[in-house]
Amino acid sequence: MKFLPLIWRNALRNRLRTFLTLAGIAFLLFVLIFVLTALTEMQAWEGVAAPHLRVVVQHAEGLTALLTIDLENYLKSDEIQRHAKNVTKFNWYGGYYQDRDNLLPEFAVDVGVIRELFTELRFSDDAYRRLLATKNGTLVGVGLMKKFGWEVGRKITLIGTFYPANPELEIVGTFTATDPHQEVQMFFRWDYFDELMNQQKMVSTYWMEARTLEDIPKLKELIDAHTKNSPAPTETVTEREFAAQFSAMMGNVKAIVTGIGMIVLLIMVMMTANTMAMAARERVTEVAVMRTLGFSGAGILAILVAESILVSLIGAAFAVGVSLAIFNVLRLSPNPVYFPVFMVETSTVLVALGAALFCGVFSSLVPAIRSARRKISDGLRQVV
Amino acid sequence: MGAPVVRVQGVAKTYYRDQTPVPVLEGINLEVQEGEFIALMGPSGSGKSTLLNLIAGIDRASSGRVEVAGNELSQLSERALAEFRSRHIGFIFQLYNLIPVLTAFENVELPLLLTPLSRSARETHVMTALEIVGLADRKDHTPRQLSGGQEQRVAIARAIVTDPTLLLADEPTGDLDKRSEEEILVLLKRLNTEFKKAIVMVTHDPKAAACAARTVMLEKGALVAGA
Question: What pTM did the predictor assign?
Fold first, then answer.
């Protein structure tokens, strides 16, 4: 700590250069945080699904194909109920509210089981009673309520995109969830949805909860074998596997994000290395003087590396601060349709700080080692 | 006269320009006693600064022995040499070489950062050193806000703050006006007489050399008088 004033003063020696380096690091880390957050948000559902035993039955050809309503009877039969409970039809309605930019995650479900199936959702008994009693009732996450300024009792109309129906829903209650991503969802009754669709009994997926972890493979085996030779063969997956399909649809985004991250890091290291090389070159004589006073080569090395780390971490602090302010405090999203929630996670902050630390150390090592190794007498002779 | 603080025996120093050897010092024998003030004189290129660097432990002799305060310098590792310099050597440069971003106080404090002294103990030492050189009231000034003479006095305070065994001064008045030069020489003389500091001063100036008790002449890398 006693060296901190020396390190700090040296870092501020050329204020414009330090400011530009700081700004560059902050900007690059902001880009890194943004890209990592986008990736995290794309995979958020997988994280939400991970701790649960929920199983999803979908058409073997994918989500565009529909399942039969008859399958429900089999899923509620004793053969399946030995391994599962709380079966529900589950359709993503895919409509928007007022504007196409407001495409919402609305789900038509058998509301009688959602309390047991989605235990992470918290809503009052009163709200639940109203949902059961109101055919066009909807239970809305507090995130959506806040976003649109809705209040309980309000009637809203959704505009269908691929289902040709526009449900007129009445908000009968709200729910909170352990994960904010779930708080931007809404649920309404599947029988109301079916009524709007002229009782065509269109089921896109069935959801249920496996009784134990060991029941999941059995469920997959039984259900898929049962439908194998039917007009609508199924593929039964866990909720997490179901969510992972959506991540996979985005292609090799992870590789792209990793690539961007590496490029950002490389530019940061080169930029900071340039600054540190200039700083070290300016201080050849000073370093020689300090070593004459008794500073060891290792001590000089530590001071120069610490200076670089300080600059990098201040840049990182700016980037993290601005990111948290924009995305976590103001709750702004770069694209509310694809990212209804866009929040920087602690792990992302740690990655950014780690990148800054790496940049600080790596960019200063070469100039610092050269400074520490230069002969004192040569350093004292050098005119900079 | 006390025990020798510096004992240089048969020292030679050869630099290499490309691969050509350039002998700078040859067969140097010199002793500096405790509390002695000697001036090292000679024409440019005679090896004065090289000899001073060897005594300071910032360069190594090609052959021979350099012993300072009981330490045979050729036997010390780089790390041990650094520790030796911080404990035993106070170095005064011709161009002062203060750290421009630090105040006078912080410049003087710099060598003390290598010691286990507490913050308050460091402050006491620094203020004592600044008072000795008469610049306690300028402690918060940066080098840019000081005159050349004042800068050199701060540099002297930095050299004495650790109470080193030996003060080495490489043309300490070479970059100063007449008045400042006199002030610095008076100060060095005082450090020698009042505080009993052994001093080896490289100088071109006979007037500066006259302050020393003994003058040693170097010519073409060899001692020609005063050893």
Answer: 0.75
